[in-house]
User: Fold this.
Amino acid sequence: MRIQFAEFILDAGSRQLLRNGHEVRVVPKAFDLLELLLERRPDAVSREEIRDRLWPSTFVSESTLTSLVTDLRAALDDDAAEPRFVRTVYGRGYAFAGAAAPATAAQTQSRTRQRPRLVPWLGAALLVAAALAGAWALGLRTAKLESPSFTRLTFRRGIVQSARFAPDGQTILYGAGWEGEPSRIYIGRADSLDSRPLDLPEGDILSISRNGEMAVVLGRFVSGRPPGMLARVSLAGGAPRELARDVTQADWSPDGQKLAIVRRVARADQLEFPIGRVVHSGGTLLFPAVSPEGERVAFLSYGPEGGVVSVVDRDGTVKPLARSASPFGLAWGPRGDEVWYSESGGPFTPHQGTIHAVDMRGRRRVLARLPGPVTLNDVSREGRVLLTVAQWHFSLTAQLPGESSEKDMSWFDGAALAALSPDGRTLLFSDRGGVYVRRTDGAPAVRLGAGRALDLSPDGQWALASLDKAEATLVLLPTGAGETRSVSLEGLQPIGYGGGFFPDSRRIYVNAREGERGVRVYVQGLAGEGRRAVTPAGYAATSNAVSPDGREILVSDAQGRLFLAPVKGGEPRPIATDEPEASAYKDASSPMQWSADGRYIYVANAGKDLPMGVERLTPLRIDRVDLRTGRRDPWRSIPIADPAGVTGAVSFHMTPDQRAYAYSYGRILCALYLVEGLS
Assistant:
């Protein structure tokens, strides 16, 4: 198949994409996607069909497909906001948007055969040019770098929060939490590996003005950046002066007189420029960067389709520039006519970290491809870049019945615990797109199928899992012999991670949305029989939510407050507490387990409000709540032996008799690099 569209020709036989006769480099999967969209034009192709065609019998996440579409658009120099070729069909998939027609062999050959006729004289010219360039480089030593150079600046174990160039372009300031300690601000130089902490309270560097005035956020945190107190302090010394509360990020205007800030208000972000004047609000907003002329602010926003790089002017007019699956990190380019941003690559995805440049017309180009995840922190006037490269790992740890110490039960590097059997002998977890069970005696893990694990039936025969498709679906995976069974939902859209079994192993509950209604908790049999909602809209359940007698479900509202919902129906009733103003109830304490007699529930602390979600602090603190009196008592504190880079426990499960427990936790180890030669 040879198809011509605009200045491009796709040659399926030779697997080449040509643009005006010159081959365009495109990753194989992006080529396959373009071929599929051209075959089906003008019809839309669903996300599910694309995954089945490109990754048969393999589980891939939604973000993987979105990132692939981003790669294809970059190869075609296409704009997601005003597409010429690849159009997003919201709620379904993608379609080819342009006109296309079969290309003849002569057309293809005439374009590809032009190049050999140029070789004799072009080769000689190149030799002469190379000789002149070599002499110039040897004489003046100012030749442009042929490829970027990377100089590592940090070597300790922990998390780099952010980094900025000082006005001299040589001094570097960065925020980091080393060896599990809270983040502090450090100062060093580009030509030295030495750095030292500044005599400032715990926090992170946000921006440095041309006058040497730092904007910092003060607070005690190890990973992520919860809202904190914005302050200004001179690089020359002195005490910070507080400016604004609940700020996550900020950037100085070029004259050093005003700040653009992101402020957290009622679980959403608002962008202010200057402080107090809201120019944009809603959702998650990150990395505000004031333009060199001081009239616009570039920023990242996140929604269901991924991230968007945008600029907003002082009047609040927003102009989207580029859509991306997982952008993280942004700054204006050295000339001031482009925004440079990093595509993080994300943990456990097949995609590389990428640094892009996009101009004000939405035209993008790739500056570098790197083993991700990466974060672009800052760009100097000379075009040097401060880049963070991270290594992610999720570990699975268990303390088994009758043993006094914990045991590492990790499999690959992305284990997310979903369930622990009542006898403490079997773990259910997700890892690298698969659902696994593993005996705690050390036997190898067994892969049950693709998806994300939700719960293990009390009788140990089934695993409930979610398939991340265009429309999420639930399946029952047999832990032994048997066939996978789809869970009939008939019009319900599963939401989030909540879902699990009743004690009888014959019923399940699930968080789902029906039509335009809000999220509710539904109960049904394994085959879909007897389905009904047990809560009004606005409530959701987590794992281990059903009481031992199967009569109540532990749920929470949007504010994280805990309720007991009767399975037979009725209004959820709040759980009494002897500490009505306790932050643990305000900040979404995570219920984990009922006691065997149904008198108590065990909850874990959840105090870090991160931009991308909530993680529990370490050490992990478990409290026991008496459901009759509301009394809350500490039960256990679980430290992690090696705290360097630990972001927090993401899942905790224990047996009804509390004799065994298991949890998974994340670790990020970062290194800060100085990159030169990008253009």
In short: Helices lie at 28-40, 47-54, 62-75, 105-112, 114-140, 583-586. The chain is about 10% helix and 45% strand. The first helix runs from residue 28 to 40.
